Amino acid sequence: MSNGYARYAARVLDTASKRGAGYADVQFWIAESESIYVQTGVVRDVDNSRTVGYGVRALVDGSWGFSGSDRFEDADLDAAAARAVSIARASALIPKRVRAVTPVEKYVDTWSTAVSIDPKSVPLGTKIDYLLQAEKALHVSASIVYGYAFSWNETRTKEFYSTTGSAIVQHLVQTGAGTGCNAVADGDAEFRSGPGDYGLYQGGGWEVAERADLVNNATRFGEDAVSLLKAPVLPAMTGDLILTGAVLNLQMHESIGHPLELDRSLGWEANFSGVSWAKPDQVGKLRYGSEKLNVVCDNTLPLGMATVGYDDEGTKPSPVPLIENGMLRAFLSSRDTAAETSLPLTASVRAQDWASVPIVRMTNISLAPGEGTLEDIVADTKEGILMDGIRSWSIDDHRLNFQFGTQLAWEIQNGKRTRLYRKPTYTGVTPHFWGGLDRVAGAQDWVVWGTPNCGKGEPNQFGRTSHACSHARFAGVKMGVKADD
Amino acid sequence: MTDARAALALAKKTLALVSGADQASVQVNGADAAYSRFARNYVVANLASVSTTVSVTFVKNKQQGLSTTGDLSETGLRAVVARASDVAAHVPANPEFVSLAVPGAIGASARSVFAATAEATPADRIAKLKAVFARMERSSLGSAGFTTTQAHSVAIANSLGVEAAWEGTYAGIEIKAIAERTSGYADFWTRDYAVLDAAERAHIAAAKATVSDDPAGLAPGTYTVILEPPAFVDCINNLYYGFAVDKIKESQDSWLIDRLDKPLFSPNLTVIDDWSYPGVANQPFASDGAPTQRVVLVEKGVPKGIVSSTYLANKFGVENTGHDGYPTNAIVMPGTKSREQLIAETERGILISRTWYTRTVDPRPCTITGLTRDGVYLIENGRLTKTLRNFRFFTSMLSALADVEFADKLYRSESADAPQTLLVPAAKIAKFTMSDQTSFA
């Protein structure tokens, strides 16, 4: 599986060491992707991309420097290593600094994503036909003026080498597919999409696109969008809210995953994506939510978008409970942030690509299942609202006050869906909202949802995360908030 | 590769490798970008990377394939051409496709390359940060942010005769000053790193953070607000996407539908998209080489223009304005009063320094929600009297911009989410709805 980068790595690491790095690592990436986008009966874009490059990290006098390059001549390799050292040396001009940890582990290993259907083995025409069928199925009415379907897959071969002797080769495969539409009438537009928030993204091959079941879902989305045009707007209320997994996974992402990134809690993200209301010294003491709330970081999770054999600083992952029975147990960490706080290392360091510095990322953050199906929860609800599909999301820079807009809402009366509402919103404050979690659906409805483009860092990097969950019910939620009220 | 001539030569060399296409285009993008990121008055990440990509579009019988590579070797270039050709051979014809970009007059770009930015060293960036940390430590403040220096090139050559190339430098700094219970913010974006005064920006951020150490509550409701430029640009950018022709004619979820040429906003609002405007000095062509036109988007409160790419212009029979999907160089024309005068003329209102996580909730009425951050102040009788805790706002930008006036100075913003350079002044909005208040400042 190796692409023979060991020779290049030896030169880079040797140059970095000779120039003064006490530790250095280099990771080579070959990323090959294919994205297909069809819109309203037409294949609009088929993009096939291949990038190759490497990122060098050098630790000099307790400060880090990073340099990325896509040039492979000997002089280029030397220049990239020298630049990383030079940058680290400049960082060291500031006396105060990160408590940088020199890695000592040595791993020589290979790792691959489990793949049933290699995306490259599926003819392009087969993929296009699948998407065109799905897009066509959206058009259940003339009021559907716009529809789309897409697929995306990427294979990444990464080779990591360090001055401690690590040599790790990984082959990651990820796939996504989704569909959506707009229905228009009387000067208004209604949007419906899925599965998930905007599609199903998982670690794996073309089987993920098939699992997304786009054609059947598209018919349902089209029908929903048309029905929404005639539905009333959700009125303001406070009460029981049931979220499907399609919404719940993003709610977890924003109000659990991000606040538990340790670099954020330490203030390293304060200017951009913010800080966290949860603090490292609250581990074991902070009640994050109700007794029903059990969340684990598992970067070995099958189908996870963040599942790896090793993270991007060469750490081997294992499952770490983040929240147990509502109590905070751990944060998502890197070597440096773990050392700064004496909290466990979770192998949650990722770079977007070879040109990006590895940083702490939300990885696979999952909500443990409870019991029963979605319909059991509906039947168990006397009066409430069920929401599905994502339309908008916003949360403050402490990860407390949030507002979500969803694609549709069902009124629940005496255990039955009674009326469809459009333009629903709900809002809340993180610990109060999760404190109201009173029922979680069972393992049969547990889906590994994924996000391919979580933004964080300066420069902004897209990270890949997963949130496995079923469905859940929350008490005392404020819903139907409207603009300019 | 940050030299535009070299990028164009590479594009032409790659184009020459294409055979059998009805039309073909090659785009080359080069970058050398460095960031020094800080928090808690020290460096938390320090990095740089160089990259060059070559993208080939191959069209035959209206079948179109796109392929991108970073391998600039002869073998790599031949491979990317072959992949684009192979993709095109396996996709159905696109009946909407008319043509790739045709040659047009591309305006002469203003000066966009500055040596102080292109040649900045890691030590140069750290020197800027030392000034920031010194100012923060003088007031016992923490800090977070970054400074960046970047050089970019882009070149396009296509089989219809388009040849376009541009290079530019970017530099910037963002500073969040952090006190125990309050914070302040300042930034600066320029093409010339030499004019970036980090100490001055640090002072502005620090001053904002230290107006008060006891942030007060204020009931949610509709208030007169003054949005400082970083806040206003974040809000009005939600409006800009509605000027895209595909939002009007394809997805049909633009607020602009049925509102073109009709009075909608305050007569004080005029917005143009102009890459050549002083302070913008941007790339004068779209990603396919089509010349980017100056477009009047809003004139004295009346929406006047839409933007389009080659593909969509051909599909819908509208003018090709040379925009990749949305306004990329939008400028809100300034007013005549100073920011201080706008504050002085406000009997009761709220001054908002910066906003965060602003999202379009409903595109037809352009309702947006988001949160304030890093400096919110109560204005009473023309003076800042209190630091306030943060708010969630939830409002229609159509109604917010119905009664607005602008300060006299333009501010340059670079977007983290899209390749945009936007210029805005501070904006005083008569009615702006705060739907909730947070427990912190």
What's the helix and strand layout?
The complex is a heterodimer of chains A (485) and B (441).
Chain A: H1 6-18, E1 23-39, E2 42-60, E3 63-69, H2 74-91, E4 108-112, H3 124-138, E5 144-162, E6 167-185, E7 188-194, E8 200-203, H4 206-211, H5 214-230, E9 237-243, H6 245-257, H7 262-265, E10 295-297, E11 320-324, E12 327-328, H8 335-341, E13 349-350, E14 359-360, E15 365-367, H9 374-379, E16 383-395, E17 401-413, E18 416-421, E19 425-429, H10 430-435, E20 437-440, E21 447-456, E22 461-469, E23 472-479
Parallel strand pairs in A: 4-6, 9-16
Antiparallel strand pairs in A: 1-2, 1-5, 2-3, 5-6, 6-7, 6-8, 9-23, 10-11, 10-15, 11-12, 13-14, 16-17, 17-18, 17-19, 19-23, 20-23, 21-22
Helix pairs in contact in A: 1-2, 3-5
Chain B: H1 4-15, E1 23-39, E2 42-60, E3 63-69, H2 74-89, H3 115-118, H4 122-138, E4 142-158, E5 163-178, E6 183-190, H5 198-209, E7 221-227, H6 229-240, H7 245-249, E8 271-273, E9 295-299, E10 302-303, H8 310-316, E11 330-332, H9 339-344, E12 348-362, E13 367-380, E14 383-387, E15 391-396, H10 397-400, E16 404-406, E17 411-414, E18 421-424, E19 427-437
Parallel strand pairs in B: 7-12
Antiparallel strand pairs in B: 1-2, 1-4, 2-3, 4-5, 5-6, 7-19, 8-9, 8-11, 9-10, 12-13, 13-14, 13-15, 15-19, 16-19, 17-18
